[in-house]
Amino acid sequence: MGNTNPIYDEPPSISVVVPVYNSEATLVELTSRLVDVLSSLGAQFEIILVNDCSRDSSWEVIHGLAQINSRIIGLNLMHNYGQHNAILAGIQKAQYDITMTLDDDLQHPPEEIPLLLAKMAEGYDVVYGRPVQRQHKVWRNLGSRVLKSALKIVLGAEMGKNSSAFRAFRSILKRGFENFKDAQLSIDVLLSWSAARVTSVPVRHEERKKGRSGYTIRKLMILTLNMITGYSSLPLRITSGLGILASLLGIGMFIHVVIQRLTQPRSVPGFAFVAAEIALFAGLQLFAIGVIGEYIARMHFRTMGKPPYAIREEVKYPSVSDMTKGGPEKRAPVHGQEKSPTGQKE
């Protein structure tokens, strides 16, 4: 299934971005398989491993891999920003025609990469690798379904249905979000700003052999909430609808009390009825304030200019032909902007 070779006039150059978090046990096998697959395509390529402040020895492993293969680049982030932020750091570093992203846990088989490239050769801007059957635990599948529903709301039914962390897209698309600075982001939303032709291909999804997922059900729910409030006005519309319903309910209650008072002069509305009415409207008001507060908070943080990531260190060893020029290139960019050893921005 993974041996299909894409047909191009010339093999496209490829940048593979892998967000890394506590994956010291899988990185060697992952990069070995990536190098084998990409080398077989006969194209220029680079593998960008972005360490999202792992707690294990992932950065040391990345450093060693970069020393062995000059086509491997390591980025070490200042602290844990999240998967999408780490991917964005790699995307903005990528220099080749096509950028690919996949997870670090080997659940996305590198051998399926040619399938995505073959589909891109048909003229698509973005191609997702859609798992034939997800090999996750029940709770993770449930969280993924909820997140998919949020993506359908934000991106539209078609792109939301196709979305996956295993994706290939034309690097030129990043021009549409090269100045993006929000700390809360979704790569799929950013791609949707530029992409017009999006599709997916079925791929294998393998079981996790080592380690455990960095996503908990709580993190997935937070990501879903951030997606909906960050890129959709749906919560505001729901709040407006609830406000209208509450108003109609209040009018109905008022009419009921007036009619009861006119037809039964001795009847006095009970305290429980009034208390329930007050509690209902107070709850709806607090809900509306909370939703509006989410949007205001996002605007506040955006005006603060909080960066989506900051790179502590970048490592890239020269090829054999460049060995006479010295050791590895090491850089310490600040707030997502890389600086050369001379201090000048690239």
Overall description:
This protein is of the alpha/beta class. The protein folds into two domains: 14-231 and 310-331, Spore Coat Polysaccharide Biosynthesis Protein SpsA, Chain A; 234-304. Helix content is 44%, strand content 14%. It contains ten helices and nine strands. It has helices at residues 27-40, 58-68, 83-93, 113-120, 138-155, 157-162, 187-192, 217-231, 234-263, 271-304, and strands at 14-20, 45-51, 72-77, 98-101, 126-131, 167-170, 198-203, 311-316, 329-331. The protein has a nine-stranded mixed β-sheet, with helices on both faces. Strand 2 (45-51), helix 2 and strand 3 form a beta-alpha-beta unit. The model is unreliable at 1-7, 322-327 and 332-346 (pLDDT under 50).
Descriptive terms for the model:
346 residues; Spore Coat Polysaccharide Biosynthesis Protein SpsA, Chain A; single chain; 2 domains
Domains (count): 2
- Report the radius of gyration as a whole number of Å: 26 Å
Overall geometry: elongated
Unreliable spans: 1-7, 322-327, 332-346
**N-to-C SSE string, H for helix and E for strand:** EHEHEHEHEHHEHEHHHEE
Question: How are the SSEs ordered, and which strands pair?
Answer:
Layout (H helix, E strand, L loop, with lengths): L13 E7 L6 H14 L4 E7 L6 H11 L3 E6 L5 H11 L4 E4 L11 H8 L5 E6 L6 H18 L1 H6 L4 E4 L16 H6 L5 E6 L13 H15 L2 H30 L7 H34 L6 E6 L12 E3 L15
Question: Can you describe this structure in just a few lines?
Answer:
The protein has 346 residues and is α/β, with parallel strands linked by helices. The chain has helices spanning 27-40, 58-68, 83-93, 113-120, 138-155, 157-162, 187-192, 217-231, 234-263, 271-304, and strands spanning 14-20, 45-51, 72-77, 98-101, 126-131, 167-170, 198-203, 311-316, 329-331.
